[in-house]
Amino acid sequence: MRREYLGDSYDAVKRLWRDLFLNTAPLLADGRFIEANLRDDFTNLTGIPILADPLPKRYSILNDPDTGIRLPGEQNQAEGRTHIAITSILMQLQASAVLCVITFDQSYYRHSPLNRLQQRRAKMQDVEQGGSKAFYYVSHAPFLFAFRDSAGLNQVRQILTNAGMPLTRLEFV
Predict the structure, then answer these.
(1) Please, are residues 71 and 119 in contact by the beta-carbon 8 Å criterion?
(2) Which of 17, 64, 111, 161 has a Cα at 20 to 30 A from 139?
(3) What is the pLDDT of residues 88-116, one digit of tens each?
């Protein structure tokens, strides 16, 4: 995240995720996607602290790359502040204390023969091929939710629907 993005409507959605996860598995942001001089302002605005020790007994991770998730097959390109690969998300899920990894994803590969829906499905299928589960929250601010197992997915789906989130906003493989 860069300073010029701070305070956009996407940050309001991130604060919603923070609020919904607060009592179950608090949301912590992966600092590699947030400029060091912006971290305090990011946490103040979203309420999401940067991932650091000591970690809670149970927590969730927010990845906030500037653009989003690499499309499978494009993952040989370097990761940085703008993009994350599915393999990195799968590695984050290996920590037993992690309930969920939420990743901002507005990326769309125009040179791909796949449309936006097909690209989201390809990413979810890549998560599933890695032995995990996933769904998308689809809106102006799309997010991939990834889980180690079906139990985590079902728990978070219940949290979202109990908060009034319409199931039509959730997209499954």
Answers:
(1) yes
(2) 111
(3) 999 999 999 999 999 999 988 888 889 99
Distance from first CA to last CA of the chain, Å, rounded? Answer: 28
Cα-atom radius of gyration of the chain, to the nearest Å? 15
More confident residue, 1 or 173: 173
Per the confidence metrics, is the pTM higher than 0.85? yes
Name the burial class of residue 104, with classes exposed (0-12), middle (13-18) and buried (19+) by CB atoms within 10 angstroms of its CB.
buried
Is 70 exceeded by the pLDDT of residue 20?
Answer: yes
* Mean model confidence pLDDT for the chain: 92
Contact (CB, 8 A) for 28 and 62: yes
- Domain residue spans of the chain: 3-172
With tokens 């809106």, the residue in question is 139
- How far apart, in whole angstroms, are the C-alpha atoms of residue 98 and residue 108? 28
Displacement of CA 25 from its chain's centroid (Å): 14
Between CA 145 and CA 153 the distance in angstroms is 8
CATH 2.30.30 for domain 3-172: no
